[in-house]
User: What shape does this take?
Amino acid sequence: MDKYTKLHMVTQGGYGTIYKATSSRGVQVVLKEVILANQEEEEVQVTRKEAQLLSSLSHPHIIRYVDHWETPDLLTIAMEYAEGGSLEKVISKRESHFEETEALKIFVEVVAAVEYLHRKEIIHRDICARNVLVCSTGVIKLCDFGVSKRMRSVRTGSLKGDPSHFAPELCYGGKYVQFDQSHWGYLQLIYMINNDQGGRTLLVGSSLRGTEGQDLTSSFY
Assistant: This one.
């Protein structure tokens, strides 16, 4: 296994901490570290499953798995480094929306990644600009498979991911049917890419109840 040297922290959240790092061979990566003592067992299992799922994927528009390992204190996933950061951050820094050709390129590459997952019977369940990364070459990479599921293991009606990205039919109490939520994720991305309000989402509820209220009163339909 390569040895990795942390360069700096990228972000931190309840799921763990992301670092930019370099391997002993000089390859830049990101390390997702989860402190086991700070997590419930269910959350640790989510990260383990994310590593296993990511290791089974190989697609030009999905962030590349490098390695993962576990010590008594830490669970770490090493992944490809995308220099441009998240699409959400890129959008927030822009003063105007993307040109049509730029927006189409982003959308086509995200769809290619999701279609690959669907062929493998995997549902991402959290398609949003925060989980789309941009490489220095402009290539788009889908990331964050923490709430992804293989189709056979998804419970009908189960809700996972950011509430502001839930498909409206889920908030109405509808059943989770196959890959339908991906279509709503696509719509959210198109909207964020093409509006001038700093990447505002279609629905802005921070909780399931708040999102339900947005869905029931929204003027987007």
Observations:
- The CA atoms of residues 64 and 107 lie 19 Å apart.
- Residues 204-208, 214-221 have pLDDT under 50 and may be disordered.
